[in-house]
Amino acid sequence: MISSSPAQTFRVAALYRFASLPEHEALRTELATFCCKRGIRGTLLLAAEGINGTVAGTPEAIEALIEHLEKMPALKGLEVKYSTASEMPFHRMKVRLKKEIVTMGVPEVDPVNQAGTYVEPAEWNTLISDPETVVVDTRNAYETAIGTFSRAMDPETETFRDFPAWAERNLNRLKGRKIAMFCTGGIRCEKATAYMKLIGVDDVYHLKGGILKYLEEVPAEESLWEGECFVFDERVSVRHGLEKGEATLCRACRHPLTPQDRASPLFQEGIACPHCAESRSEADRARYAERQRQIELAEKRGDRFPIGTPVGKQDA
């Protein structure tokens, strides 16, 4: 178990870069060893199109990792968003090889050379306040459920693989318009803009650094963000200043829960929530109830991660 003392916090780094990385397979063992030696935990994904991941460790360890990655010519200019956590938010360190660092399933998409135009957080409000701009949230439905930008279109996708079909269905509404796209850390919307250009939508923009960078840099009193931002670790959500949010996770269906969700009569800790209560069988409920009992017993013993399952639903 890794926990912090009153004087210590963990630094969380959400990072990615689209780049030509043909040698990615050879990096797997090197990066896993580098991180494990320094107590870093989280997940890094490697593919021929670049690197993506979120990791946490001491500030010194995370600084060393970012410096190590930046020394690789292909990864110079890495997009990184930092936040903090009072306890280690990951179970273990994983370095995985993938066909894509964020899975869309369209091989022709080239985010290295064809992505849309970056928009800095300070300029984002002006862009999305223009009534002629179509604002598109490229995240999945369980993420948008707890927060998004005002006026944003929600594709209501289950995974990022569903996005191309949604874009094709809505092509007549999007073509010839100014399109502003956003996501959690910038990676999905960057790839989505490349796909939009592939299908003939050319005037596309994406929020540099994603929602996380916006929440870090834009003052709350000037913000057009509504709600909280889902993150793929034990914090579940963050809000302005990247402070931990109020959302928790339903351990039955993995859907993020607002305080209103938890106040619902359909909510039972670890067993059901308003999003899944009517779709679970009695056998499911019995299984979840036993798991919850084991979690509570483990927590009484002081176990930090009593159940070895990752938080959230990650596109794979």
From TrEMBL:
The name this protein goes by in its record: tRNA uridine(34) hydroxylase
Cited function: Catalyzes oxygen-dependent 5-hydroxyuridine (ho5U) modification at position 34 in tRNAs.
Oxidoreductase in keyword set: yes
PROSITE patterns: RHODANESE_3
Enzyme Commission number(s) of this protein: 1.14.-.-
Keywords on record: Oxidoreductase, tRNA processing
Reactions accelerated catalytically: uridine(34) in tRNA + AH2 + O2 = 5-hydroxyuridine(34) in tRNA + A + H2O
Organism in which the protein naturally occurs: Nitratireductor kimnyeongensis
tRNA processing among keywords: yes
Family of this protein: Belongs to the TrhO family.
Domain of life: Bacteria
Gene label: trhO
NCBIfam families attached to this UniProt entry: PRK00142.1-4
Rhodanese domain ranges (all copies): 129-223
Enzyme class, UniProt record, top EC level: oxidoreductase
Stored Pfam families: Rhodanese, UPF0176_N
